[in-house]
Design goal:
mainly alpha; single chain; elongated; 73% helix
């Protein structure tokens, strides 16, 4: 048996083991992004008239909204695939951890929306999560035996 092929004897019928933590993390992440959009981004559009805001600030608000809405949609899509136990889940989850890291870097250095103390905590959390979960999704038998539903089988 090749190392990349799932063991035919390992076919988990439900999400379990450490994958429960990933599922919880995905749901909490979607809630956190939604709350950020509702509590921080959308109110900024209503503080003053958009026409009174400089072009640079308008662009920042628009990009921040678009990036976070895109992230929210992506997380929800990953959750749907996760629940359906689709074979593509490992790739999507890995890309989500990489995207999260990229968003943090963009937020800090492009938008400067994260303070120095917050940034250190958030970057450590992001790197630690990626270092734990990316290898897990690459080598875990549980992952290979859980996400076995192909698109054609739906």
């Amino acid at each position: 048996m090749s190392n990349n092929q799932p063991d035919k004897n390992l076919n988990y019928t439900k999400i379990g083991g450490w994958l429960i933590l990933v599922a919880i993390g995905l749901v909490l992440s979607s809630i956190a992004v939604l709350l950020y959009i509702i509590s921080d981004i959308l109110p900024a559009f209503h503080v003053v008239s958009v026409s009174q805001v400089s072009g640079e600030l308008r662009l920042y608000l628009f990009l921040d909204l678009v990036l976070n809405l895109s992230l929210l949609v992506y997380i929800i899509y990953v959750i749907v695939l996760f629940v359906k136990r689709r074979t593509a889940v490992p790739k999507f989850v890995i890309s989500l951890y990489i995207l999260n890291f990229a968003f943090i870097i963009i937020d800090r250095f492009v938008f400067k929306s994260i303070s120095e103390s917050q940034w250190i905590f958030v970057i450590i959390q992001s790197v630690a999560s990626a270092l734990i979960w990316i290898p897990y999704f690459l080598v875990s038998k549980r992952v290979k035996g859980t996400f076995v539903v192909k698109k054609e089988e739906e």
